[in-house]
Write a structure and sequence with these properties.
alpha/beta, Metallo-beta-lactamase, Chain A, 8-stranded mixed beta sheet, 9 helices, binds zinc ion
Length: 276
Amino acid sequence: MLRVTVLGSGSRGNAVLIDGSDGSVLVDAGFGLRALRRRLQMAGRHPEEIEALVLTHEHLDHASGAAAASARWGWPVHASADTLAALASSEGGAPARSQAFTPAGPTVIGGFQLEHGGVPHDAADCRALVFTDTRSGARVGVVLDAGHVPDGLPAMLSRLDLLVLESNHDADMLAHGPYPWMLKRRISGGSGHLSNVAAAALAAGCVHRGLQGVMLAHLSETNNTPAMALACMRDGLRRAGWCRDAIWASPQREPHAPVTAAGATAPVTAAQLSLF
Ligand SMILES: [Zn+2]
Ligand SMILES: [Zn+2]
């Protein structure tokens, strides 16, 4: 079994809960403790159910809650050595428990085999992540904050069941929007964020019979709309021969309903959140 719950995604915080057959891991903790706990509760979950926190990179919208969450809930924090070093010198300090990714070969975390690969972004080190459920073999890829698609990334994202992918901005909205010129250049440059078109091209390269769902993430609230991001992705995937109605846009303000992939042939379901 494989289930992905985006607890929130965007420039004001990111956290993605991944449940497998033998455990649960959280990717990124870009919210404070109270917000993290509240978002987990909205999804009917508890911090104690999470075995480990895995970070893509050290930027605040991905790691601002990492050290506090590690101290409060005992989560070991897994990240690249450069990301951990950047965290240690940040205001939040080093997590109470941390482990650097092994440079060669996959790391085993919470019932998942984790592969990671560097992506260009203006951080100390930003990683794309692929989690393979060791029991079922189901795979989910998580790509957040990538300035462009490096050569090795499409191969790393092969045979995915689910993909969580940044679709940050519409290039025209960014170009003609209110941001200052320097910020526009930072976002659209090779070390910034993926446009809708770039995200759709990357996802199209991931198309295979077993791909069951695509969650769009890190949408800009100023330079994008969910409708535009979804339309661009749908168009790109259709042209690649993938016609499932299984593309969702992750909101910033609240968790998205969980998306499950039971295996290579089972349908994806977006279950209702249990709000309480
Ligand atoms: Zn970010
Ligand atoms: Zn970032």
